């Protein structure tokens, strides 16, 4: 799976983490590989091996100066491609440095995110086309949180929309990104959604059907695009959101959370709400991407709020509720002990599709779904349909990103 992840452009850093030329370098661990990101004097981004080619000192201590990162130990200098450009202890005229090169990966900015491709340059796909990253900048904000569990069990929370009626119950009527939507009532009134999951070109459409008026159905259709992109169905006129679940190593991941509207800028209240940790976003331990509520403080469990029904779990905030329950399963949940039920069909099918893709990729070199930008131009949707209409057909137009067309939302 780790090898297959190298087929994709994945989010590596927020652009704001490297705010200016020659700013401090940032440590980045992705797919169990330790790297350092920096922005050079000319504004070029680099993502290179964290450890110096001389004797392995971390280049995080390096000096970012004159178009390169210079190791603090003996001054070897590397450019954004990982090429060693100076070994100052060697005699004048020495060409020794030209034969020394660190592993490096591209780092490109799109939608306020720095993306990397950790596969071989020959297989580098076209740049990512996710709608949240291609709308005008003021239409979109992305945050990230460090999460202490495997990426896949976190992702499984992103495609399991049956938990919303329970875990997030208390927040649907209060949270600024959820409240006021008519769809909330269907969520709260029907706790037995019927799931219909069908394959999409890049992954799955996960349809959750709840009863609406006059025998019609309220459908919430979540997008999962392989391997790690999920998009939550919209509510009313609110901005749309979802996640990228990026492996740091087997036991940690980055939960990236994007918030955007396809046809309008986010307003000041929405921007403030993201910064205040509302919706799927969180608040942080100062100076870090770790949540302020975390396992060391029992996620600031509030039993009184839980008893009063203010929150279902006693944890405050939708994003934190997700993080808390996903981490509580342990770093890698033991799936041999699970008891899956009909509302888990999205998870079952996603696992099946991942396993098939890994097999095809590793045995035959087949490019996995989701690499093609065509697979990335998708939208989630919330719609009311008559009972005899399959959502894949009736909502087909709503499941594709059409610039300047509002999302299908209730
Ligand atoms: S270890 Fe980096 S220059 Fe010596
Ligand atoms: Fe959730």
Small-molecule binders = FE2/S2 (inorganic) cluster, fe (ii) ion
Which residue ranges are poorly predicted, with pLDDT under 50 across at least 5 consecutive positions? none
Residues in helix, %: 10-25%
How many helix segments? 10
How large a portion of the residues is in β-strands, by DSSP E? 15-25%
The main β sheet shows up as: 8 strands, antiparallel
Q: Based on the structure, what is the oligomeric state of the protein chains?
A: single chain
| Category from helices, strands and their pairing | alpha+beta
Tell me, what's the shape? globular
The SSE string, one letter per element, is HEEEEEEEEEEEHEHHEEEEEEHHHHHEH
| Gap between N and C termini | 37 Å
What's the alpha carbon Rg, rounded to whole Å?
23 Å
Mean pLDDT: 97
How many strand units? 19
Structure description:
- The protein is an alpha+beta fold and 410 residues long.
- It has helices at 2-5, 131-134, 151-158, 183-189, 268-275, 303-307, 318-328, 345-364, 373-376, 391-394, and strands at 9-14, 26-30, 33-39, 45-49, 63-64, 69-70, 77-78, 84-86, 104-105, 107-110, 113-117, 140-147, 194-199, 203-211, 217-225, 229-231, 240-249, 252-260, 381-385.
- The strands form 4 sheets. Strands 12, 13, 14, 15, 16, 17, 18 and 19 form an 8-stranded antiparallel β-sheet that branches. A 4-stranded antiparallel β-sheet has the order 2-3-4-9, with no helix packed on it. Strands 5-6-7-8 form a 4-stranded antiparallel β-sheet, with no helix packed on it.
- The longest helix is centred in the last third of the chain and has 20 residues, at 345-364.
- The mean pLDDT is 97.
- It binds FE2/S2 (inorganic) cluster and fe (ii) ion (FE2).
- Fe (ii) ion is lined by residues 157, 163, 167-168, 322.
């Amino acid at each position: 799976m780790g090898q297959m992840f190298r087929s994709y452009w994945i989010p590596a850093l927020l652009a704001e983490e490297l705010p200016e030329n020659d700013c401090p370098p940032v440590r980045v661990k992705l797919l169990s590989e330790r790297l350092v990101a920096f922005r050079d004097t000319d504004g070029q981004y680099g993502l290179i091996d964290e450890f110096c080619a001389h004797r392995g000192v971390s280049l995080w201590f390096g000096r970012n100066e004159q178009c390169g990162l210079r190791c603090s130990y003996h001054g070897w200098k590397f450019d954004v491609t990982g090429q060693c450009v100076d070994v100052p202890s060697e005699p004048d005229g020495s060409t020794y440095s030209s034969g020394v090169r660190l592993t490096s990966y591209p780092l490109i900015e799109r939608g306020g995110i720095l993306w990397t491709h950790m596969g071989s340059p020959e297989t580098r796909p076209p740049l990512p086309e996710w709608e949240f990253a291609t709308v005008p900048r003021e239409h979109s904000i992305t945050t990230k949180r460090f999460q202490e569990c495997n990426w896949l069990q976190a992702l499984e929370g992103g495609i399991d929309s049956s938990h919303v009626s329970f875990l997030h119950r208390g927040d649907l009527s209060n949270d600024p990104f959820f409240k006021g939507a008519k769809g909330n009532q269907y969520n709260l009134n029907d706790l037995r959604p019927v799931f219909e999951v069908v394959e999409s070109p890049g992954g799955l459409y996960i349809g959750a059907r709840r009863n609406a008026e006059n025998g019609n159905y309220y459908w919430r259709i979540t997008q999962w695009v392989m391997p790690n992109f999920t998009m939550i169905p919209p509510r009313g006129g609110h901005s749309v959101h979802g996640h990228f679940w990026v492996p740091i190593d087997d036991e940690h991941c980055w939960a990236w959370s994007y918030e955007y509207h396809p046809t309008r800028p986010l307003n000041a209240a929405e921007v403030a709400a993201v910064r205040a940790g509302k919706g799927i976003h969180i608040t942080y331990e100062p100076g870090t991407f770790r949540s302020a509520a975390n396992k060391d403080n029992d996620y600031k469990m509030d039993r009184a709020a839980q008893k009063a029904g203010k929150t279902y779990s006693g944890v405050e905030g939708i994003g934190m509720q997700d993080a808390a329950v996903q981490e509580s399963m342990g770093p890698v949940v033991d799936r041999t002990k699970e008891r899956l039920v009909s509302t888990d069909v999205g998870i079952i099918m996603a696992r099946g599709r991942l396993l098939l893709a890994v097999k095809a990729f590793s045995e035959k070199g087949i490019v996995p779904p989701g690499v093609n930008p065509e697979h990335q131009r998708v939208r989630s949707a919330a719609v009311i349909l008559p009972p005899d209409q399959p959502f894949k057909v009736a909502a087909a137009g709503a499941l594709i990103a059409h610039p300047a067309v509002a999302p299908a939302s209730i």
